[in-house]
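As a representative case, the lines below give one protein's residues and fold tokens.
***
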Amino acid sequence: MSIRTLAVVSAGLGTPSSTRLLADRLAAAASEAVGERGDEVHVEVVELREHAHDLASTLLTGFAPPALAEAITTVTHADAVIAVTPVFTASYSGLFKTFLDVLDPKALVGVPVLIGATAGTPRHSLVLEHAVRPVFAYLRAVVVPTGVFAAAEDWGAGDGELTERISRAAGELADLVTAAGPRRPDLADPFANAPSFEELLRR
């Protein structure tokens, strides 16, 4: 039995938010599906709203503050990722994209990813295919075939179809995770061997 780490990225802005609700349901279903295949799951959640200011600073300075750096490490060292964004102006949120922009371009190569999105109307249901999936394809992640979109009308007592999509997507993610060995990310720190200020002065 292996312990798999699952990073859940939620870009919801409210507390609570439908985005976080969908992320939690996807994580629970994925954990159950991986368990059925004989492995255990350790889930770590990254709430991007908590890092909004740090993300803006990192774009300007190139250096992530400690809390954001820890969140980045959580995602880049996970065996699989669940990423859920609200829909803003027919696409992913700026907060969601900014987080992806500060990741090492090679951080998600070959990593299984389950994508999800939430919106107030089903008219945005194709956002996963025309916006979110291409971003992760560019990052060379392995995105599961089933993306999970949830509009306002999908919640409640009659959410059987949503539950079915969640279960199918979770099963696809579990298949990818359990078929692969634990990740050994090789992400070199470009500043690991940077000279100190004193060394620079001596030169």
About this structure: Residues 3-202 form a domain with the Rossmann fold fold (CATH 3.40.50.360). The first strand starts at residue 3 and ends at 10. The CA atoms of residues 95 and 187 lie 23 Å apart.
